[in-house]
Amino acid sequence: MKILVTGGTGYIGSHTCVELLDAGYEIVVIDNFSNSQPDVLDKIKMITRKDFKFYKGDVCDKEILQMIFKENKIDAVVHFAGFKAVGESVIKPLMYYRNNIDSTLSLLEVMNEYNCKKIVFSSSATVYGKPDKLPIKENFSLKTTNPYGATKLMIEDILRDLYISDNDWSIAILRYFNPIGAHASGLIGENPNDIPNNLMPYIVKVATKELECLNIFGDDYDTLDGTGVRDYIHVVDLSKGHIKAIEKVIKDKGVDAYNLGTGRGYSVLELVNTFMKVNNVKINYKIVGRRPGDIDACYADPSYAKEKLGWSASLGIEQMCKDAYNFIKKIEEM
Ligand code: NAD
Ligand code: UD1
Predict the structure, then answer these.
(1) Ligand 2: does its nearest atom lie under 6 Å from the Cβ of 293?
(2) Going from the N-terminus, what domains does the chain have, and what CATH number goes with each?
(3) Is the CB of residue 327 less than 8 Å from the CB of residue 182?
(4) Which of 151, 291, 317, when mutated, tests ligand 2's pocket best, judged by the most ligand atoms within 8 Å of its CB?
(5) Among protein residues, the one whose CA lies closest to atom 9 of ligand 2
(6) 226/249 Cα distance (integer angstroms)
(7) Residue 315: closest CA among 175, 137, 179
(8) Are 56 and 31 spatial neighbours (Cβ–Cβ below 8 Å)?
(9) What is this structure's pTM?
């Protein structure tokens, strides 16, 4: 079985390439390095001791996609390529709509052309907006508050319409909660160049003293300690979910969405305290005002993914904190 991985050198894509290769799949990867580095390719090969084909290119570009499908007999696609920063999407909406929607349309058109109709798509818990109750189930109403989330929702609609028009398609929509952590080897992980928007990359940069102090956005939320609660999931667990989703689309036709989360929420302070404890480092932090658009709490009911995909997360928050720090320390040693 040969799987095309778009955005395969990115954070989640690289971990999923490792899991796919370890599970015995052949992979073909396309990425334009707009948010990743070429050396990730060697790291994936080092971890798995397996080789694979790579194409440097833009998924919006149908010509390169046609070349990939002509040169390789692709059985299914995992589509990660896209921009993902919520704040940036508010400032540059056209860039987000163009990249996320255009890449998906080009990909689906070329897949259709080559009669490859099995796809796993990276959606996000952001499609639930501010949920009315918790934990979040897949059948909750969908709404978004920013252009990034709107692209995810639009792509979900495109995929559902595609299936309605042609029941030969097999489509798994994966709604990720908050992926953190890194591969146990410490060779791949998340290391944004700019000042991080998300919590874990920020904590890590405070731990390494690259940044001075973590700003905790609000301690007056309706949660146990007043700080925001999220469903953090180890990126390796999340990647394993893609293997189960690939198995599903290979076996069954249809379109369906699955929450990939642990089902357990942790507050910002719980995450910070766990990070300090397991890594024996100090994280300076101060409480500041709320970040606009943030919600009190968000965590998944992951039982549908367990029932339909036979997947559930197994790594806990301590492991997530250890692996995130181990990855950054390895980079510093290099
Ligand atoms: P990432 O930015 O690390 O990876 C995305 C990869 O896609 C990068 O390597 C980038 O260079 C590449 N890319 C972007 N546009 C491209 C294009 N037009 N052509 C070719 N390559 C392109 O992001 P990630 O965290 O690995 O996320 C992967 C997917 O999962 C994204 O679609 C993202 O929206 C979604 N997602 C991520 C999170 C998260 O917290 N990381 C949460 C929910 C959903
Ligand atoms: C972000 C995205 C969301 C995406 C999700 C998963 C935003 C507004 N939303 O959500 O679309 O689906 O990641 O990747 O970016 N926090 C701090 N200080 C910081 C950073 C964060 O206190 O410097 C707090 C936040 O207020 C929140 C928690 O930490 O309570 C997690 O924040 P973050 O990692 O940005 O994830 P989400 O807000 O869940």
Answers:
(1) yes
(2) 2-181+232-261 (3.40.50.720)
(3) yes
(4) 291
(5) 86
(6) 41
(7) 179
(8) yes
(9) 0.98
